[in-house]
Amino acid sequence: MFSMRFPAVLAVAVLAPGLAMAAPVVFSAAGPNAASIQAEVDAFRTALGALNPNEPQNFKGGRRQINWDAAPDAVSDPNEFPGDFFNFGAAPRARGIEFRSSVNPLAGPPEQIAEGFQLSSTDASGEPVRFGFPDELAVFSPERLFAPTGGTVFDVLFFDPADQVSPAFSMGLGIVFTNVSEIDIGLPEPSTDAAIALFTEGQDITQDTPDFVFNAEASGPGGLSFLGILFDSPVIAGATVQAGFIPIDEATSGSSVVAMDDFIFGEPTPAPVPLPAGAWLLGSALLGAAGLRRRGRNA
Fold it and tell me: Which NCBIfam families match (predicted)?
């Protein structure tokens, strides 16, 4: 992901020149089980704020999250999971988030770009659990997992939960990965096969180079990794995620696949609507008049 043309950004955070924003805080942990990452996940949740209701309305601050577990069998393995399932106009699916195939040519070669998505099945469904790789893939919140199909690179976009159409921004995004492995791509620092690239306010996720790229820590076989990135205000316009290199639907063994569990993100905040030019002129005139009156009273 972005390493094909920008190899130096895969394992480190990159700040575009002239970008006027505070550097993000990174929450990262990995280990053999859920307990290994629980404290870091909890810290990220606390930093974002209280969990908001899954209602199609706006809240000031706080967070939303997805653990996949209440999704019906109709959108789970072997069926396709709709990428807009959680951008919906009614509870409990109103989360203001969508998953899409990446169209940015910098995101990777075509064969790495996801074509769709899938949720793993439950024990009760009668289908193989954890995409048929129960020994290699772990869950953080039992029992479903999420994975791209047809490729391993996909986009995350935020929308106004109240109208499901207007683009929105988030102050943080955290993802639980499973079965993350260390890879060697010739950089001084070790890298892994799971990463989040962030696009911030003013960027175009379809063509720009991301402002930041972070890698999840290696978890070891069957382990869990958490990677969360937090800003001090809602500036994340979207993200491109790398989940391994072998799609879950093409894997013949689980040793090289990566799946995801919980997604935790700051309340999607609609972009402010710019005032028409006339309104700015009127506002400037009113402010000027007010300033004159204040000076007059103080004279």
Answer: VPLPA-CTERM
